[in-house]
Amino acid sequence: MSFLPAGSYREGDSILHKMDPFCKLLCTLLFLTAVILSDTFPGYLLGAAGLLAVTMVSRLGLRTALSGVKRMWLFFCLILLMNTAFFETEQTWWEWWIFRFSADGLIQGLQVVLRVAMAMVLGNLLLSASSPLELVGAMESLMYPLKFVGVPIRDVAMILGVAIQFIPAFSEEAETIRKAQTARGARFESRKLSEKAGSVVPLVVPIFLAAFRRADELAMAMEARGYRRTKGKIRKRRRHLSPADGIGLLLCVLFCAAEVLL
Amino acid sequence: MPIEVKEVSCRYGERTPLEVQALKEISFRAEDGEFVGIMGHTGCGKSTLIQLIAGLLTPGEGQILIDGKDINGPGYDREELRRTLGIVFQYPESQLFETTVWRDVAFALKHLDLSREEKAERVRWVLEAVGFRMERAGKSPLSLSGGEKRRVAIAGVLAARPRILIFDEPLAGLDPWGRLEFLELAARLHRQGNTILMVSHDADALCGYADRILVLDRGRLSAQGTPEEIFGDLERAETLHIGAGEVRRIAQALYEKGRLQSPAITKYKILLGEIKKNNKGR
Amino acid sequence: MKQLTYVKKAILTAACIALCVVLPMAFHAIPNAGNIYCPMHMPVLLCGLVCGWPFGLLCGVAGPVLSSLFTGMPSMAYLPSMIIELAAYGLTAGLVMRFVHTKKTMADLYISLVAALLAGRIVAGASRALIFASGSYSMEAWITSYFVTALPGLLIQLALLPAIAFALEKARLIPVRYPRTAG
Fold it and tell me: Is the pLDDT score of A256 beyond 50?
C-alpha cells in the first residue's frame, strides 16, 4: 500500500484558501501575465512586492512560497550563461567563435531568471492554497469558452474525473506488480543502454495491461448503462462568489495595468 | 530453513496524517517443511506480514530471520532470498508480460547459474507440474484463458525452485476444480519438503492441508495452533473474527443431533470416516 | 475486437492520463533512472497511437497538469514546455497513425513514433528557447542541445512502446490493426 503524496497542497483557512477556485485561477493567470510583461526595475519591484503581499495574506510562509526555487540554481546559471553568451547586440565585451558576451545579454538573462522565479513562486502559492480537486474544477470552468469551438467539455470533464479516480487504484496495482516482479528476480536498473529498455519491460507492460483492463471494464459498464457522447445543453455550475473574489480580481487587473504602464 | 519472526511491527505512512499501524509485535516461528495457514479479517495485516517475510517491506521494529540470518541485517545477500523464497500474489496473472509462455516462466531463471539445457529442462518440469499443456508454451501468455494464465504465473514463481513458498489468497477467482487442483499442487510441494505459508479466507482449505494456522486480528497475532485447536471452540473462533469451514459446521450440526461423538473435526476425510463409524447399520 | 467506441476511447484516455501521474512515481523507485526513461511520455504516445489525435492531445495536456497537481512533478518551471511537448506527441502520433497504413503494424508504429517524438522535441525545444532566451543563435543552441541530450530517451521510447502495444493487442485490450483474415 503506498500513499499518494498530495503535491504541495497545504491545508489552511486564509482568504486565499477560501477564495473561489475559478477566480483564484483567473487571478493567478492575470498575475502571471503581469509578471511576463514586466521589464523595468520598478516593474520587478512591484511584482516582488505583490508576491510578498499574497504570501502574507495566505499565511503560508516564505519557505512554502520559495520552495523549489533554490533547487533551480543550476538551471538559472545556465540561462544566464546562454543569454550572456548569445544575445544579439552591437556592444559586446568579447567575441570568440560563435560566442558573443555582452552586458545586454547578462541583463536579459537576469530578467528571464527573475520572471521564471516569480512565476514559480506564483505557482507555489496557487498550488499550496488549493486542493487538486478544486483546481481541476476551476480548470473545467475555464474551459467553458472552448465549448463554442466544438470541444465537448462535458466529456473532457468526465474523462478528467475518471482519471483522478483511477490514480489511487493504478498506484496500488503498480506497487504490487513491482513487488511481484522483484520477488521473481527482476532487476530494473542496468548499465548498458541496450539493456535499459528490456529491464524495465517487466514493470511497464503489466502496469499498462492492468490499467487498460480496468478501463475496458469501466467502459463496458458505462456503455451497458447507456452512456453516450454528450449532446445538448450544458448546465453552468453554480458558483459561490464572495467579496474577496471580486477584490482579488480587481487588484490583479490593476496590477496588470500597472505593469504595462511601468 | 526455518522462518523466525521476532517482535515485528510495521507502520504505513509514518509522520503523515494517514499513518496506520499495520502490525504490532508479531512473533512466531515456522519450521522447515511446515505448512502454515494465515487467516484473519480483511485489513488485519496478513499481506503486510508475508511481504515482510519476503523481504519486500522493511519492519519498523523487530527482526525477520530465515535460516538464522536477519534478512534486513547488513551484509545479507538479497539474491539468496530471491532464490530461496518465492511469493505468489493474489491474481498473479497480472505479472505476465513476455512474448511467449516459455520466456515468461524462464524469467525467474535469468540470474541463476544454469546452463541453457538446464533452464529448458526446468521450464518443462515446472509447466508440467502446474498442469499446463506443453504444446501451448509458444503462445503469448496474454492470449491464454484465465486458468492457463494462472498456471503460467505460478509456474513463473516455482521455476526457481524456492524452498519457501508464500501464497497470498491463491484460491481467489478459481472454480471448484481449479481450487482442488491448486490445493493438490500445494500438498505435493509440501510433501516434497518445501515450507508453505498460505494466506486464505478458505477455512476448509487451510484446515484440510495446513499443519498449523496463525490468526491475525487488527495487526496482532491473536491465536496459533492446529486446525482442531483453532476451530475446536466455535465461539472462540467467532471472537477471532474468522469463519469456520463447512466441515467443522457440519460436524457441529451432526454432533448436536447426536450423530457424532466429537464436534472438533475440520478435515473432510476424517468427517466422512467418523460419520461412517458412528452410523453403521442405519 | 473491431473498432474502439467513443466511450472506450474516452475511458482509455482517462487511464492514460492517470498513468501519466502513476508511472513517474513507479519509476522513482528505480535507482539511477534519471531522466532517461521519461515515463510520462509513454501513456501520451500510446493514447495518441490507439485513440487518435483528439484524445492524444487531451492526454498530452491533462497528463502533466494532473501530475504536477498530485505529485509536484514536473515543477512549475518545466510545466508549460512539458505540456507543449506532450501535446505535440499525442497530436502527431494520432495524426500519423491515421494517415499511414503500411500493412505492417510495426512499421506504422515506428513511423508514427518517430514523427511524434521529433515533432514534440522540436516544438518543446523551441518553446523553451522562446521562454528562456532570445536572439537567433541561442534559439538554435537550445533546440540542438535539448535534442542531443534527449537521444537515448528517444531510443528507449522506440523500444518500449511497440512492446506495450503488442502486449495490449495480444490481450485483446486494443483492436488488432491488421487482422489476419482466415483462408
Answer: yes
pTM for the structure as a whole: 0.85
* Contact call for B97 and A179, based on CB within 8 A: no
pLDDT bin (cut points 50, 70, 90) of residue A2 is very low
CA A38 to chain centre: 21
- Mean local confidence (pLDDT), A36-59: 79
Q: What's chain B's Rg over C-alpha atoms?
A: 20
CA distance B147 to A39: 68
- For residue A155, give the amino acid letter: D
In CATH, the number for domain C6-170 is 1.10.1760.20
The size of chain C, in residues, is 183
Task: Report ipTM for this prediction.
Answer: 0.91
Q: In whole angstroms, what separates CA A93 from the centre of its chain?
A: 39
Q: Where are the domains of chain C?
A: 6-170
Q: What is the predicted pLDDT for the residue at C147?
A: 72
E strands, C100-164, are none
The Cα of A9 is separated from the nearest Cα of chain C by a number of Å equal to 8
Q: Tell me whether A72 touches chain C (CB under 8 Å).
A: yes
Long-range contacts of B54-61 (CB under 8 A, 24+ apart): B54/A183, B54/B81, B54/B85, B54/B87, B54/B166, B55/B81, B55/B85, B56/A179, B56/A182, B56/A183, B56/B87, B57/B10, B59/B8, B59/B9, B59/B10, B59/B23, B60/B9, B60/B10, B60/B11, B60/B14, B61/B7, B61/B8, B61/B9, B61/B25
pLDDT for position B281 = 63
Candidates B18, B95, B111; nearest CB to A180: B95
C167/B143 Cβ within 8 A: no
The pLDDT tens digits of the residues spanning B148-186 come to: 999 999 999 999 999 999 999 999 889 999 999 999 999
Per DSSP bridges, beta strands A99-101 and A94-96 are: antiparallel
At residue C145, does pLDDT exceed 80? Answer: no
**Spatial CB neighbours of B81, under 8 Å, sequence gap ≥ 6:** B54, B55, B66, B71
- Neighbouring C-alpha atoms within 13 Å toward the C-beta of A259: 24
Domains for chain B: give ranges and CATH numbers: 3-244 (3.40.50.300), 245-282 (no CATH)
Q: Which of A5-19, A176-190, C118-132 has the highest mean pLDDT?
A: A176-190
List the subunits that have 3+ CB pairs under 8 angstroms with B: A, C
Res A8: pLDDT: 64
Rounded Cα distance, A118 and A37, in Å? 12
Check pLDDT > 80 for residue C180. Answer: no
On the CB side of B252, how many CA atoms lie within 13 Å of its CA? Answer: 13
Q: Which three cell numbers stand for residue A201?
A: 519491460
Q: Please report the residues numbered 113 through 172 in chain C whose beta carbons come closer than 8 angstroms to any beta carbon of chain A.
A: 131-138, 141-142, 152, 155-156, 159-160, 163-164, 167-168, 171
Give CA angle at A172 (B139, C164), nearest 5°.
35
C-contacting residues in A 8-37 (Cβ below 8 Å): 8
Return the domain boundaries, chain A.
Answer: 15-130+241-261, 153-224
Burial of A63 (0-12, 13-18, 19+ CB in 10 A): exposed
Does B196 or A41 have the greater pLDDT score? B196
CA distance A35 to A55: 16
Regions of chain B short of the pLDDT cut 70: 14-18, 281-282
Cβ-based contacts under 8 A for chains A and B = 57
How many angstroms separate the CA atoms of B37 and A50, rounded?
A: 64
